[in-house]
Amino acid sequence: MSVHQSLIVQMRDMARNNSKASQILRFLVINQGIEDQVLLMELFRDAFNTSLGSVTAIGAWWHEGERELDDDAIDSYISYVITDFLAHH
After folding, report:
1. Is residue 79 a contact partner of residue 63, using CB atoms and an 8 Å limit?
2. What is the CB neighbour count within 10 angstroms for residue 7?
3. Scanning 3, 8, 48, 54, which has its CA 20 to 30 A from the CA of 88?
4. What is the pTM of this model?
């Protein structure tokens, strides 16, 4: 299993355990050291079977609060992606 696939499995497990989008993003950034915004969007796209357009708000979020969107905002913008995925899987 590739690193990418392993992360997708972990992200889906976190979602099934009621983790918010911001918590999953923090896991990827802080625990996994991923700082590339495009890679974060691609991981969300692949993990939750959505389009990049659905998760572009990730580009305006950062875990240190130095970007436009904070945790609450990113959760409100993209939580439906996780909800929709869980409803169908």
Report:
1. no
2. 20
3. 3
4. 0.94
The number of helices, as runs of H, and strands, as runs of E, in the chain is 4, 0
Report which of 81, 17, 35 is spatially closest to residue 25, judged by C-alpha positions: 35
Helix (H), strand (E) at residue 15: helix 3-16
Q: Helices 71-88 and 37-47, interaxial angle, to 10°?
A: 30
DSSP structural state of residue 68:
S
Alpha helices, DSSP H, located in 17-70: 21-26, 37-47
**pLDDT tens digit string along 32-77?**
999 999 999 999 999 999 999 999 999 999 877 677 899 999 999 9
